Amino acid sequence: xxxxxxxxxxxxxxxxxxxxxxxxxxxxxxxxxxxxxxxxxxxxxxxxxxxxxxxxxxxxxxxxxxxxxxxxxxxxxxxxxxxxxxxxxxxxxxxxxxxxxxxxxxxxxxxxxxxxxxxxxxxxxxxxxxxxxxxxxxxxxxxxxxxxxxxxxxxxxxxxxxxxxxxxxxxxxxxxxxxxxxxxxxxxxxxxxxxxxxxxxxxxxxxxxxxxxxxxxxxxxxxxxxxx
Length: 228
Hints:
Helix content: 25-40%
CATH superfamily: Phosphoglycerate mutase-like
CATH class: Alpha Beta
Number of helices: 8
Radius of gyration: 17 Å
Strand content: 15-25%
Number of domains: 1
Shape: globular
Structural class: alpha/beta
Number of strands: 6
Largest sheet: 6 strands, mixed
CATH architecture: 3-Layer(aba) Sandwich
Strand order of the largest sheet: 3-2-4-1-5-6
CATH topology: Rossmann fold
């Protein structure tokens, strides 16, 4: 369904690194804060976005963010650079991973099995549409709430608006899986680096979109050169 004819460019930004990211632990919707590295990454992506918007002579119409602190603090750092205050949106939260939160993939492979004694985590990575995380959300639940939130955001903006959305790997991946593959089956395989930028050009509604870039973290090379 199209709500109105317009072109809105969405800049998705994954939050900066946390201690869980560094340790390879699943975060889900646990409120894990940015690490010092994550704060530096957030500053780097903020500078990169400022340069991009400065080239076209306008700042974004809005910045939206998940309520989890790692996303909110990334958005605040970006907002300070762009002089736009972030607006929290509940539906942009990361996927609730239930009993798996705080665990590493190797721990999960040894802990959760189906009736045929196959590791649930590996099956979920292969096709999350067939497996519901114990005590957590299904991938279909995530798509429904994320899509609803994004479509509400799109209706608030007119033609040629640029919008920054700071969120998590899960929400970005379900959108990309639907756009690129027409299915959520590969959503758990889509990679999103810390503070990576994914850009969509939305024509009226979310699923009339053109993907302009995916998982662009080129700004982190500049950060590495500063540290060397």
